[in-house]
Amino acid sequence: MSTAASVLALSASDVLPRLTAGSFFSQWSWSLVPVVVTVWAGGLYLLGVAKLHRRGDRWPIARTVSFVGVGLGAFFLATTSGLAAYDTTLVSVHMVQHMVLSMVAPLFLALGAPVTLALRTLPPAPRRWLLVLLHSPLAKLLSFPPLTFGLYVISPWALYFTGWYRASLEHVWVHEMMHVHLMMVGALFFWPLMGIDPIPGRVGYPFRVALVVGTLPFHAFLGITIMNQTALLGGDWYPRLATGPMGSWLPDPYADQNLAGGILWASGDLIGLSFFVVLFVQWVRQSMAEAKREDRRLDLLEAREARAARQAEQQPH
After folding, report:
1. CA 184 – CA 102 distance, rounded (Å)
2. CA–CA separation, 18 and 28 (whole Å)
3. Which of 150, 135, 137 is nearest to 189 (CA)?
4. What does the pLDDT look like over 246-288, one tens digit per residue?
5. CA–CA separation, 277 vs 273, rounded Å?
6. How many beta carbons lie within 10 A of that of residue 231, not counting itself?
7. Is 143 within 8 Å of 187 (Cβ atoms)?
8. Can you spell out the DSSP letters for the chain?
9. CA distance 206 to 203
10. Model pLDDT for residues 131-168, shown as the tens digit of each residue
11. Taking the model in full, what pTM does it have?
């Protein structure tokens, strides 16, 4: 990025007012990509639900609320609201945005089961293409649990302890790609674990629980490392902001970085435990469904045996 562009990026942050509840909801950072993605994804999902209803099929309202309301809503707010407006001004705000994009949005998008909806509503040709994609070697590779776990764990370290984070502050396109990366890595890791779509990478519930629980110490360790870091994330970016008009309200960069590390640590554990609860509920429901199927099978077998016994008794000796 040129020096002039860097100055422009810095001056764009300089005009922000003190961060309050009012300014958080009044300062919006409109970007074409998040708006287009939200409108198209939400619109296509709702069209699919409407198509099911027109032909008399049911689609759980909870899935629609999860995908459109919470999943896409979280993505939209994280990339256009005050979280986006202040994400290059306060590293603590960026950290909240990071957790929303990498954990909250992927979870609720997965619970919305968009692949299942697509398979039930697409015309025959696109449906075949989607099935080919789902069974392709690339899909199996990208949903391989050890690989997705490694990407999910390593990515934050690469973001904050390389030049990537400073580049995301200076270059708009790097900043946008960082958002895409956080969403993709979160989706690749959590979709096979938490979602109900028929995608590769499915493993048993005990292994799913182990993978989710395995993320907790990594979030804690990274958060503590950031809190104890003597060097500032982003180098002199935040101290330079403090020399401008926002210097009257900006917190000490080290204090804000300490808060960001605490947010990563606490929210990572809290959201991770929420994932554990979701997995546990899904596990219990699956076990209950399997138990009901087994009961029906045994009842049917018992009825057949009883019918055979009655027929044998009615046979003349």
Report:
1. 8
2. 14
3. 150
4. 888 999 999 999 999 999 998 887 777 777 787 777 777 766 7
5. 6
6. 9
7. no
8. --HHHHHHHHHHHHT-----HHHHHH-----HHHHHHHHHHHHHHHHHHHHHHHTT----HHHHIIIIIIIIHHHHHHHHSHHHHSTTT-HHHHHHHHHIIIIIHHHHHHHT-HHHHHHHHS-HHHHHHHHHHHTSHHHHHHT-HHHHHHHHHHHHHHHHSSTHHHHHHH-HHHHHHHHHHHHHHHHHHHHHHH--S--S----HHHHHHHHHHHHHHHHHHHHHHHH-SSPTTTTHHHHHHTSGGGGTPPPHHHHHHHHHHHHHHHHHHHHHHHHHHHHHHHHHHHHHHHHHHHHHHHHHHHHHHHHHHHHHHS--
9. 8
10. 999 889 998 888 888 899 899 989 999 999 999 999 99
11. 0.82
The token pair at 170 is 């200076």
